[in-house]
Amino acid sequence: MMAIDTLSSDELCAAIAELDRCSYNHDQWLESLMGTLVCALPPDERDIDDNPHRKCRLGQWYYSEAKQPLALSNRPGFAELGTAHERMHCYAADMLRSTAAGERVTIQQYQRFIAALKNMRLEIAALRQVMEDALQAVDPLTGVPGRFGLLSRLREQQALVERCAQSCCVAMMDLDHFKAVNDAFGHAAGDHVLKACTHHMARGLRPYDQLFRYGGEEFVVVMPETTIEEGLAIIDRLRGELAGVPQDIGSDEPVHVTASFGVTRLEPGVLVETSIARADEALYAAKAAGRNRALVWDPAMDGHQPASSRSA
Fold first, then answer.
1. Can you state the angle between helices 78-100 and 9-38, rounded to 10 degrees?
2. What is this enzyme's catalytic activity, as reactions (predicted)?
């Protein structure tokens, strides 16, 4: 299941904006509904047809795979929003049919509708808050989650590993000689390279993999349901592809940027912080071996110079 923190900042902003538009549209619909009931006006046929909850703007967004991201629809609570929204429209249609038949709306009908409306608004508010929280955890430059999101994600995966439910690989990535890019072309060019490399890596990962910015030019890739051999193959492919992509930074000639990687796996009984440190040690070994390569951690690397003390 894809977590909501797999969404980019652009996807989160777009989803929040659309949810806000849907909420505003529903408020306008509610005003029209109340006017129809109070003044005994003919109802809008869409509100009493079959499946009226699919015809309003919220319903169109909710049920459209093209309009809302998969990671959002898989989130616990998203189904509850759909149920509350459908129930609210069902009760609204019941009241409209009563008035259309010349009958008075009973207090029981009205109370059911109001309770469903409040529940739907609560679910919308909860979903929006989750997206706002995820957006705050996203790195503003690259649009991928930062360290806080990384630890949360790794602990989720570690729990699955402890239950022997699946394997999970972790890779630490560092751009080679990135300081030289900043020194030669300026920090604006460096930021452009960071964003371009991030987008290239994110596009090359599988839907359930995730990229995090660890700090500076360092990133971490989390690969669920992946053996160490599969993880190394994925990372080595991405490394080779990245090296072949010219980065246009506004100079006479584009630059090519390479990256080094350290790969390890989550293991039962091993803290996620230790697994990150192991990936970091393998990354240092890859740097020491000449850069632009990926190495798997092994116990012989334990205690070697940490990546935080190496040169770019």
1. 20
2. 2 GTP = 3',3'-c-di-GMP + 2 diphosphate
Nearest to 57 by CA among 90, 93, 17, 94: 17
DSSP state of 304: S
Tokens of 10: 């652009």
The amino acid occupying position 221 is: V
- Residue 6 confidence (pLDDT): 63
Q: Write out residues in the chain with pLDDT < 70, as ranges.
A: 1-9, 66-71, 75-76, 136, 303-312
Q: Which of 54, 71, 72, 76 is nearest to 63 (CA)?
A: 54
By CB neighbour count within 10 A (0-12 exposed, 13-18 middle, 19+ buried), where does 246 fall? exposed
Domains of the chain, earliest start first: 4-136 (1.20.120.30), 147-309 (3.30.70.270)
- Residues with a known catalytic role: 217
C-alpha R_g of the chain: 26
Angle at 59 between CA 55 and CA 62, to 5 degrees: 150
Contact between 222 and 170 under an 8 Å Cβ cutoff? The reply is yes
56 and 49 Cβ atoms separated by less than 8 Å: no
Residue of 287, 121, 288 whose CA lies nearest to 218: 287
Query: What distance in Å separates the CA atoms of residue 33 and residue 282, rounded to the nearest whole number?
Result: 63
DSSP 72: H
pLDDT in tens, 223-270: 999 999 999 999 999 999 999 988 887 777 888 899 999 999 999 999
Cβ contact 131:74 at 8 Å: no
Selection from 311, 294, 150 nearest residue 217 by Cα: 311
Q: How far apart are CA 165 and CA 292, in angstroms?
A: 33
Q: In sequence order, which residues have a C-beta less than 8 Å from that of residue 300 and are 6 or more positions away?
A: none
**Chain mean position to CA 121:** 23
CB of 181 closer than 8 Å to CB of 190:
yes
